[in-house]
Amino acid sequence: MYRRFLLLLKAKKPPAVSLLFCSEFIRTSCSATTFPKLCYNSLSAHATKIQTSAKLLASTALDVTLASAKSTTAAMFNLQQSHGGISPRDSAAMRDCVEELGDSVDQIRQSIDEMHASKGGADFEMMISDVQTWVSAALTDETTCNDGFAGKGTAADGEMKTVVRGKIETIGQLTSNALALVNAYATLHH
């Protein structure tokens, strides 16, 4: 498999639309992330869009992360609304988490907008620095949200805590992967 990948790279005109070639590019790129399996699984469906572009790979990772963060924020808001019998501490943790996730969504959206607006050139360094800062801040917000459900002795110790932490951990992992791919894209320009 690796040998075939190398042969494709050496070809004068690589079959850019080849699903195998695009998928292998994603797999190889994802191997440098902290959560390579999640990275590949979340991005491989976009292989023909990404092809072999590090910029499109990073942008698509941000798009996937944004979709997941928006979906989880909505689910958290609904969960908060539907659990009227939870303790004041858990209610406050849910409220804070929804706010943190909202901030995370905004930061990821800013990153995507900045990546799409970038034309490269002299502004590249500033653009990539902004994107790295915003994605890092989003990761911090997600961690803060998850930390709100740490500890014992609350209603959140049960099913709600499991659901919330699972969703937040997935967003954190997607965000971590997106940041790694943004960093890899930045490295190509140094």
TrEMBL record:
The keyword Disulfide bond applies. Residues 21-181 form the Pectinesterase inhibitor domain. InterPro entries: Invertase/methylesterase_inhib, Pectinesterase_inhib_dom, PME_Inhibitor. Keywords: Apoplast, Disulfide bond, Secreted, Signal. Its main location: secreted. Coiled coil: none annotated. It is found in: Secreted, Extracellular space, Apoplast. GO terms for cellular component: apoplast. GO terms for molecular function: enzyme inhibitor activity. Belongs to the PMEI family. This is Pectinesterase inhibitor domain-containing protein. It comes from Linum tenue.
